[in-house]
Amino acid sequence: MLEDTSTLGSASSQTHVPLSYAQERFWVLDQLYGKSQRYYLSRAFRMKGSLHELALNQSFQTIVNRHEILRTTFPSVNGSPRQVVSPIRALSIPVVELPHNGEATREVEGIHMLVKEEARPLDLVHGPLWRVTLVRFDPQDHLLILVMHHIISDGWSMEILFDELSKLYSEYCQDRKPSFPALSFQYSDFTRWQREYLNGQVGGKELAYWQKTLEDVPPLLPLPTDYPRGPMESFHGGQVLCLLPERLNSKITLVKQRTGSSFFMVLLATLQLFLFRYTGSSDILVGAPTAGRNRPEHEPLIG
Predict the structure, then answer these.
(1) Which residues, other chains included, contact 65 with Cβ-Cβ below 8 Å and sequence gap of 6+?
(2) CA angle 70, 75, 91 (to 5 degrees)
(3) Whether the Cβ atoms of residue 72 and residue 14 lie closer than 8 Å to each other
């Protein structure tokens, strides 16, 4: 994990800020299920060639300094969760030495380390809510592992973080001072904006719309499974990966062109037709992960 070694400065704000609505969902889930890796985001990157460790540390330090959300924890204040930004502190990336021979062995060890880091809990109250670990196979071969709690990050945030990391690392490797300006807008500012925007008539209209739209949707989809549904969610799901034959792919392309749809929309419609065939239900809810920003001042934010 990132180790705090000395105070470099103070946070721009120590004010207790309420959570965004998305953060509230993850906070509630944390209260229900405890510290669970099902709401962690993780990435692992193989790095071949000479590694400038000081430049890597400096790059992450700059990112943490820029983005208050990476220094944020979520204690309860009078029974309600709040965002609290910690002071800026010096960071040190831990290095794990795994000097094994053979590419196959290194691949296995790398996967093992990723699983191990994903399993280590992240504490919403005490933090930190992200960590980075550097695995060294030899001086010319490293694996960088990043784990973040979803309450402070999303897919868009990951792109921001690694884009900044790449640019900063390049600058620090050449002993140049990066020209990254301080952010004028932080995630806590977004939270305040969101609360003000949705606490008025806009939020009331949107809530009323979705309550009306979903009021008759059955709580469960009656799929004919080969075993009974358990009383509690286990989250022990899985993934099935497959390659579409070229002929089928061509047919899907024709359908999306004729209907003005995307590839995703055609496949989603196909899935819903499949579920309708086996359930007879015409109201089928399918969740799809998304990431994006709809205001320019929100685009460069991690959170």
Answers:
(1) 8, 9, 88
(2) 30
(3) no
Element (H, E) at 160: helix 155-173
Question: Which residues are within 8 A (CB) of 297 and not within 5 positions of it... i.e. 6 or more apart?
Answer: 184, 185
Cα radius of gyration (the chain): 23
Cα–Cα dist 67/160, whole Å: 11
Enumerate residues 6+ apart whose C-beta is below 8 A from 94: 1, 3, 133, 134
Distance CA 195, CA 21 (A): 8
CA atoms within 13 A on the CB side of 255: 15
Q: For 2, which DSSP code?
A: P
Torsion of CA 26, 32, 38, 43, to 10 degrees: 40
Number of other CB atoms surrounding residue 112 within 10 Å: 12
CA atoms within 13 A on the CB side of 152: 27
> 201-232 pLDDT, tens per residue?
888 898 899 899 888 888 888 888 888 888 87
Residue 5's nearest CA partner among 86, 87, 91, 73 is 91
Q: Which residues contact 116 (CB under 8 A, 6 or more apart)?
A: none
* Residue-by-residue DSSP string for 61-105: HHHHHH-GGGGEE--EETTEE-BEEPPPB-----EEE----SHHH
Over residues 265-283, the pLDDT tens digits come to 999 999 999 999 999 988 8
Residues forming beta bridges with residue 204, ordered by sequence position: none
Classify the phi-psi angles of 55: left when phi > 0, otherwise alpha if psi is within -120 to 50, otherwise beta: alpha
3-state SS class at 136: strand
Global pTM?
Answer: 0.82
The crossing angle, in degrees rounded to 10, of helices 21-33 and 187-198 is 100
Which residue spans within the chain are E strands per DSSP? 40-48, 72-73, 76-77, 80-81, 84-85, 95-97, 130-138, 141-149
- Are 116 and 143 a contacting pair, CB within 8 Å? no
